[in-house]
Amino acid sequence: MMPTCKEVSERVSRSLDEKLTLKERIGVWIHLSMCGICSLYKKQLDLMNHMFKKVAAEDGSEQPFFTMSDKAKETIKKAVKENMDKTE
Amino acid sequence: MDDGQQPENEHMTEPDTWVDRYGDYLFSYAFQRVNDRVAAEDIVQDTFVAALVARTKFKGKSKVKTWLTGILKHKVIDHFRKKYKELPKDNIELTADLANTEFNEKGEWKNKPSKWSQDPGKLLEQREFMEVIHKCIAGLSSRLASAFTLRELEDESTETICKVLNISPTNCWVMLHRARSLMRLCLEKKWLGAKR
What is the ipTM of this complex? Predict the structure, then answer.
C-alpha cells in the first residue's frame, strides 16, 4: 500500500533519527516523486536539521547569545569561592 | 596565535576567574538546551563546583572551556532525568491540535507547508531570527522541547532520549516528529513564510 502524506511526513522525520526499512524507503521515494507538498516538507525538515547543527556548533567565539544577570553571576562566584576554599 | 605549531597543553585557569571567563558561554549553552533560566543558572553553578573537585585531573589536552562544557553536558542530562522521573511513561502529550490541523482523515495535507523565502541556515547571524528560534522552542510543551533540543542540539540518540525523558521507545519518534512539525510551522509563521 502506498503511504499517505501523513505517513510520509512521519517517516521523513523518523529517517532523521533511525534507518527506515527498505520497504518504507521505497514507499517514501515513490510518494515524494509524485507529491510536491511532501517534497517541500522534507526539504524544510532537512533545512531545519542543518540549521540546528550550525546552532549547536556555535563555539562561543562570538558573544554568547544568552547571558546571566549580574546577580546570578555573583551568586555563582560566591559558591565557587566557598567550594574553592573547601577543595584547596 | 596561530603560527602553525603544535599548541602547548592548555593550563588550568584560576577558578576565581571562571565565572567571568566562561559563565555566559556555559549559561547560553545550558539555557538553549533546558529553556529555563533558573535551571540553567543552577546547572552552571553545579558545573563549576564539580569542576573544582576535578580540576587536578585536567590534563590540558583540551581547552578549559571544552572541558567545562563536557561536565555541563552531563549536568544537563541529570537535570532532565530528574525533571521527568515522575511523569507517567505513556503520557506523550497528545497534541490533538497538530494532529487534526495538518492532515485530514485520509492522511492528506490540510494545512500545507508554504515555500520558504529564505534558507534558515543563512539567518543565524541575525539576532532577531535567533530569538524567533528560541521563542518557537519555548512554545513547545516541556517534554517535547526537551526531546527536541537533546536530539537537534546535543545529537543524543533516541535511545538515550527515551531513557532520560522517561518516554517509551515507541513514543519517542512520535514526540520528535511532533516537535519538528511544530517547529517547522512556528518558524514558517514567524519568519520564513513571509516575503522579506
Answer: 0.91
DSSP string, chain B: ---SSPPPPPPPPPGGGHHHHHHHHHHHHHHHHH--HHHHHHHHHHHHHHHHHHGGG--SSS-HHHHHHHHHHHHHHHHHHHHHSSS-TT-----HHHHHHHB-TTS-BSSPPPPPSS-GGG-TT-HHHHHHHHHHHHHS-HHHHHHHHHHHTT---HHHHHHHHT--HHHHHHHHHHHHHHHHHHHIIIIITS--
Distance CA B170, CA A84 (A): 46
Task: Check A4 against B184: CB less than 8 A apart.
Answer: no
CA–CA min distance B87, chain A (Å): 24
Q: Torsions phi, psi of B11, nearest 5?
A: -85, 145
* Residues from chain A contacting residue B27 (CB–CB below 8 Å): 64, 66-68, 72
Q: Whole-prediction pTM value?
A: 0.89
Tracing cell 533540543 back to the chain, one arrives at B149
Interface contact flag, A76 B31, Cβ < 8 Å = no
Longest dimension (CA), chain B: 64
One pLDDT digit (tens) per residue for chain B, 196 residues? 545 554 556 788 899 999 999 999 999 999 999 999 999 999 999 999 999 999 888 888 889 999 999 999 999 999 999 999 987 766 656 554 455 678 999 999 999 999 999 999 999 888 899 999 999 999 999 999 999 999 999 999 999 999 999 988 888 889 999 999 999 999 999 999 876 5
